[in-house]
């Protein structure tokens, strides 16, 4: 004797309910498709028409890092750590460059995607996320290629500690996203903010410890530099490349809390004023 499902008149199990258009799964799939399309659009716009195609996305920053590293190695032959200045410089410049690129591109996300954001399906979050993911992936690839080439061709006897390096990638991307989102609002509301920000952050290259370590400067200067999250990031990066370097000043919690605070503020403001920015 067969047993039938009492909920089905015919005895067959009912078909599963389709996913509602407004459900979380549907929204996630829609966001993924939109973000992917925006990423492909940016790749085509930035690299699709240039000589070398998408390869230029890697060669351009790679060449810049190597040329700057070589130039500074000729001027300052004795690094604070190790025997190779090009490696010492690269371990400071690579995370700084990753932060700069991510924060700058995220800050211009609304302006870059403004024509497409006239469609209701494309949100400000999609525009920010697309630029962040694409430039984060490109930046990580560039960092890997640059540091790999340097460690292979420079006789520096490097003993890598992967854990600090992975932490640096995460902290750098978080900081780039946080600063980029906040600047996205300020750039959209105040036209002069880009010039002001450029002037204010001009000493950041020096203040982030790209050319020196935190311990090289006097204690009075250390007190000011400590509040710069990037000095913690560059120190942590060098800890992953120099086994004898164990900086005690690094506070990952401080970097995370600072970045999350800035990101929260930027997200709240962007959610409030994104329409004003698009109509500006």
UniProtKB/TrEMBL annotation:
Stretches assigned to the ABC transmembrane type-2 domain: 52-273
UniProt-annotated location(s): Cell inner membrane; Cell membrane
Major localisation: membrane
Keyword presence, NAD: no
Start and end residues of each stretch annotated as Disordered: 1-27
Ribosomal protein is among the record's keywords: no
Domain of life the protein comes from: Bacteria
Keywords attached to this entry: Capsule biogenesis/degradation, Cell membrane, Membrane, Polysaccharide transport, Sugar transport, Transmembrane, Transmembrane helix, Transport
Membrane topology: Multi-pass membrane protein
Transmembrane segments: 53-74, 81-99, 132-156, 168-190, 253-270
Pfam families: ABC2_membrane
Molecular function, one GO term: ABC-type transporter activity
GO biological process, one term: polysaccharide transport
InterPro entries given in the database record: ABC2_TM, ABC2_TM_bact-type, ABC_2_transport
Residues in coiled coil: none
GO-annotated cellular components: ATP-binding cassette (ABC) transporter complex
Family the entry assigns: Belongs to the ABC-2 integral membrane protein family.
Name of the featured protein: Transport permease protein
Organism encoding this protein: Roseovarius nanhaiticus
Higher taxonomy: Bacteria, Pseudomonadati, Pseudomonadota, Alphaproteobacteria, Rhodobacterales
């Amino acid at each position: 004797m067969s047993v039938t499902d009492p909920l089905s008149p015919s005895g067959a199990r009912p078909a599963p309910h389709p996913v509602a258009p407004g459900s979380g799964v549907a929204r996630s799939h829609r966001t993924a498709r939109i973000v992917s399309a925006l990423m492909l659009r940016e790749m085509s716009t930035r690299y699709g028409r240039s000589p070398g195609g998408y390869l230029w996305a890697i060669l351009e920053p790679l060449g810049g890092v190597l040329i700057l590293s070589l130039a500074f190695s000729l001027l300052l032959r004795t690094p604070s750590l190790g025997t190779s200045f090009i490696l010492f410089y690269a371990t400071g410049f690579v995370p700084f460059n990753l932060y700069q690129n991510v924060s700058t591109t995220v800050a211009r996300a609304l302006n870059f995607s403004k024509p497409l954001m006239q469609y209701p399906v494309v949100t400000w979050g999609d525009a920010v996320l697309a630029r962040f993911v694409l430039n984060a992936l490109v930046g990580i690839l560039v960092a890997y290629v640059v540091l790999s080439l340097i460690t292979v061709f420079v006789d520096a006897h490097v003993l890598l500690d992967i854990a600090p390096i992975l932490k640096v990638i995460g902290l750098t991307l978080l900081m780039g996203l946080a600063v980029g989102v906040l600047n996205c609002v300020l750039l959209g509301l105040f036209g002069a903010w880009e010039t002001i920000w450029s002037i204010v952050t001009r000493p950041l290259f020096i203040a982030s410890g790209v050319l020196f370590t935190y311990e090289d400067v006097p204690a009075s200067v250390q007190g000011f530099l400590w509040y710069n999250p990037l000095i913690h990031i560059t120190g942590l990066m060098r800890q992953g490349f120099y086994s004898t370097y164990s900086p005690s000043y690094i506070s990952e919690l401080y970097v995370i809390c600072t970045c999350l605070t800035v990101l929260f503020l930027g997200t709240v403001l962007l959610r409030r004023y994104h329409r004003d920015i698009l109509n500006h």
